[in-house]
Amino acid sequence: MTRAATPRVLIVGGGHLGLYTARHLQQHLRPGEAELVLADPKSHMTYQPLLPEVAAGNVEPRHVTIPLRRVLPRFHVFNGEIVALAHGSRTARLRLIDGEEYDLAYDHVVVAPGSVVRTLPVPGLPELAVGFKTLAEAVYLRNHVLMQLGLAASTFDPRVRRRALTFVLAGGGYAGVEALGELSDMSMDVAPVFGLRRQDLRWILVEATDRIMPEVSPELSEYTADVLRRRGVEIRLNTTISSCVGGRIRFGAGLYADDVVEANTLVWTAGVRPNPMLDKTDLPRDDKGRVVADAYLRVRAMPGAWTGGDCAAVPDLACPEPGALCTPTAQHAVRQARRLADNLTSELRGDGRHPPQPYLHRHAGSVAGLGRFQGVAQVYEIRLRGVPAWLLHRGYHWALLPSRVRKMRVLTDWVLESLFPRDISALGELEQPRRALQAAARAQQQPLAAGRA
Ligand SMILES: Cc1cc2nc3c(=O)[nH]c(=O)nc-3n(C[C@H](O)[C@H](O)[C@H](O)COP(=O)(O)OP(=O)(O)OC[C@H]3O[C@@H](n4cnc5c(N)ncnc54)[C@H](O)[C@@H]3O)c2cc1C
């Protein structure tokens, strides 16, 4: 790509921070003030807080994606991942899906590649566990859970049946609890259609600390645990998983030490860590690997580099504790995006009319859906539960969806889903689109080979 005379702004990652920053920049910058470029391996942003609703089948997967080219007409969008970044020479290395690589030069960079799931060295984990951070994982889990119900309904072997109907989820933060809330609600709702009893299903939530949902008050956390327990979910606090080879999940520390549960399903939501692509950059990092930012969302001691969201350590000026940092939430990422875009615009213009401002946001609280008509919410001092919290959860995320078209589609999904019984088609075959052709090719070869012999 040839360099233009105008300064080039490169955004690495079109997620919550990247997309919202891009939208503000394209709204506020006058034509010719900057050349706008965004790189992301995906062609869309995924609205992650609605992934649990995708897993439950309440919302179509496509409807929680925002096509980058549609909402960013002033941007040149590159579909590729930035595999390295040398801010000293202001170049980023882009890798396309076919493996081709080249350097992109820039003047300003917004580093927003987010985070990845944090794993632990548990034997058997990579073979058995599925994360819950991507659309593929949410869609897979929906199909997988329905297929396990189908397996249990079709086998005469009690051990196979028990394994199929045991679902373990590790990590009791809100992402994990919402995933468990929606998936357990969906599976118990449809169990009778498979000829299964709700009590045949075993859902286990494993949490290493002494309570789930640390993001809300202890009272609401206890209420959430209560809702799940009443549904039949076993909650194992102060517990870790020490091994899960071959689906034999062994518990480590705590009350359940050395207990073993056999399961075909392990969902791993035990925290996140900054995107490992940051290892291939010359940006300053803290002890957890986050890019060190100042309150203006500038990378420390790196003029022209900006950051925020899950990959960054941004001071939380609203928190009185010295050294407090913003938590990795969409709530912060979206608000940081606005501040970052304003500060970057001010620096690009350099006229001093709107000097950069520090990022300051008092955490508004948390909302979480736990399945149909059930939720918990804490907004400033107000605590809600049940249907009001569930409505607030839906309303809040609906309002934040960054596309009117997607808003309409999600709303339509919710209306239709409330009118009809749950859809129980398990579309697991989507994961292996070549299987039918390969089987046909094999079958065609066999008679020929047999005939020759
Ligand atoms: C299931 C779930 C539920 C959640 N619910 C809530 C909630 O209710 N409320 C809340 O506040 N937060 C919630 N969160 C957290 C929230 O989604 C994240 O904090 C937020 O997405 C962080 O924004 P980000 O821009 O830093 O990263 P992301 O939104 O993850 O965006 C990162 C982007 O970078 C791209 N990328 C990755 N690597 C590269 C690369 N090498 N080159 C270029 N691009 C790259 C990715 O494709 C992605 O598009 C939830 C998260 C999950 C997983």
Q: What is the second-level CATH architecture of the largest domain?
A: 3-Layer(bba) Sandwich
Low-pLDDT parts are none
Mean pLDDT score = 94
Overall number of structural domains: 2
Number of strands: 25
CATH T-level fold name of the largest domain: FAD/NAD(P)-binding domain
Can you characterise this structure?
This protein has 453 residues and is of the alpha/beta class. It folds into 2 domains: 8-41 and 79-117 and 273-349, FAD/NAD(P)-binding domain, CATH 3.50.50; 125-270 and 365-419, FAD/NAD(P)-binding domain (3-Layer(bba) Sandwich), CATH 3.50.50.100. It has 12 helices and 25 strands. Strands 5-2-1-9-21 form a 5-stranded parallel β-sheet, with helices on one face. Strand 1 (8-12), helix 1 and strand 2 form a beta-alpha-beta unit. The model has no long low-confidence stretch (mean pLDDT 94).
Briefly characterize the structure:
By secondary structure, the chain is α/β, with parallel strands linked by helices. The protein has two domains: 8-41 and 79-117 and 273-349, FAD/NAD(P)-binding domain, CATH 3.50.50.60; 125-270 and 365-419, FAD/NAD(P)-binding domain (3-Layer(bba) Sandwich). It is built from twelve helices and 25 strands.
List the defining traits of the structure above:
12 helices, binds flavin-adenine dinucleotide, alpha/beta, FAD/NAD(P)-binding domain, five-stranded parallel β-sheet, 2 domains
